[in-house]
Design a protein that fits this description.
Number of domains: 3
Strand order of the largest sheet: 1-2-3
Distance between the termini: 105 Å
CATH class of the largest domain: Mainly Alpha
Structural class: alpha+beta
Helix content: 40-55%
Radius of gyration: 31 Å
CATH architecture of the largest domain: Orthogonal Bundle
Order of helices and strands: EEEHHHHHHHHHHHHEEEHHHHH
Length: 429
């Protein structure tokens, strides 16, 4: 006797119903070894207004049935009240919900067919047919949804970058792009789109080439991951060229300019404090913001060490810092058992006011360069290389994953040395 596999629905909350497979006759549960008729597939649908009304009518009929016990009566009453309240406010399914239902049903029906084949026809399906069924099922997966899942694994500023790319993906492809519809041309079209796309922050600004590069590399990463996960049958990522990185000028401060800033007052003392701290340590704003007293250690014979947690690379980096840098941490000059979990630079937040105060402070010191907070990190890297620290050491101190990232600063130093060399000119030679 063939086992019948039926896709069924169960009300789980207001406006939602869970999907499950119903087996007849019952089958043995693979984990418990007991007979069961149900297998939930962790998928749900949104109900439309007619469906909700039908369930309300059925619940009302049950409520009027005298056979229901006191406990069952209470549960039905609660469920009915919730649905009635929801029905009054329900305006109907949105386009997003409709798309979700369509996509979910395609996958659910594929799962139902697969389970039926496994239970009844396993002996008549050859290996090739089984593989084709698997490919068809994987092809129905939504690439946009898969990217979103990868995005949600990220944290901090890295998440923001992933999220910006996600918004551009939705803008270009819509919310549904099945893996079976994915092609090299479509991804290359998206690459071309990024090179002319407007920024999410301002419709007046076009994405910089390096921002487009950053976003596109995330798409390539997801394609590579999908290949590893077996969703893609070929390595689509390897076939697609990335965007060329644009040359960027990274502003930095000279030691003379830094000394001018030390003696120049700033309306925001905390901002001055952390800016100089960044110039002396190479730590980025987020790292400094998250720095806690427990992250600072003093080791006899070695000096002060800071646990630097890089947001971009998700790496812990133990960074030696100078006594001057440590002196900027505050008058407590260390941690007690009571303040280990407190932020070293308490009250530090990123804001437009901070940017304004930074610009005022830079200007008051007589510096005409376009200096952002991140330039203090650039300053640390550039001055270290300029003063003879080898590039490998600087790369480790900055927490860079790739030495190529640090080589940008080496180019700046080479240019500075060339400019310095040309300043010495002899008369009549």
């Amino acid at each position: 006797m063939a086992i019948k596999v039926t896709l069924r629905e169960k009300l789980i909350s207001k406006g939602k119903k869970s999907l499950y497979l119903d087996f007849y006759p019952p089958i043995m549960h693979p984990k418990t070894g007991k007979l069961t008729r149900r297998e939930f597939i962790n998928m749900y649908l949104f109900m439309d207004k007619k469906e909700i009304k039908l369930i309300i009518d059925k619940l009302e009929q049950k409520l009027n049935n005298k056979k229901n016990g006191a406990e069952n009566f209470k549960n039905i009453k609660t469920q009915l009240n919730e649905l009635q309240d929801f029905y009054k406010l329900f305006k109907g399914l949105s386009n997003v919900s409709k798309k979700h239902n369509t996509e979910t049903l395609i996958i659910a029906n594929a799962i139902q067919q697969k389970r039926f084949n496994e239970l009844n026809k396993s002996e008549i399906y050859n290996d090739f047919e089984k593989e084709r069924l698997k490919i068809k099922e994987l092809g129905a997966i939504n690439f946009i949804k898969y990217y979103e899942e990868q995005k949600n694994k990220r944290k901090g500023s890295n998440y923001d970058n992933w999220d910006s790319c996600y918004k551009h993906l939705v803008s270009f492809f819509g919310e549904v792009l099945k893996f079976e519809d994915l092609s090299q041309k479509k991804i290359e079209d998206f690459r071309d789109y990024l090179l002319t796309a407007k920024s999410n922050r301002s419709a007046k600004e076009t994405l910089s080439q390096n921002s487009a590069l950053s976003y596109f590399n995330k798409v390539k990463f997801v394609l590579k991951q999908a290949y590893k996960d077996g969703i893609l049958q070929s390595d689509l990522n390897a076939k697609i060229k990335t965007i060329k990185e644009a040359e960027t000028r990274r502003e930095f401060l000279t030691i003379e300019e830094l000394n001018n800033l030390v003696t120049t007052e700033c309306v925001n003392p905390l901002l001055k404090q952390i800016a100089l701290f960044s110039a002396l340590t190479g730590m980025a704003f987020k790292e400094i913001q998250n720095l806690k007293w427990r992250d600072i250690k003093f080791i006899e014979g070695e000096g002060y060490l800071v646990l630097s947690k890089r947001q971009k690379t998700q790496r812990d980096n133990y960074l030696p810092i100078s006594e001057q840098a440590f002196s900027l941490c505050g008058k407590s000059l260390g941690a007690s058992s009571e303040n280990l979990d407190q932020n070293v630079f308490d009250g530090l937040k990123y804001s437009a006011y901070n940017n304004k105060h930074l610009a005022q402070w830079i200007g008051a010191a007589g510096i005409t360069k376009n200096i952002t907070f991140h330039c203090f990190r650039h300053t640390f890297a550039t001055l270290q290389l300029y003063n003879g620290t080898d590039i490998y050491t600087v790369s480790k101190m900055l927490g860079h994953k790739d030495l190529k990232t640090t080589q940008i600063y080496a180019k700046i130093v080479d240019e500075a040395k060339r400019t310095a060399a040309n300043k010495i000119k002899l008369d009549n030679l």
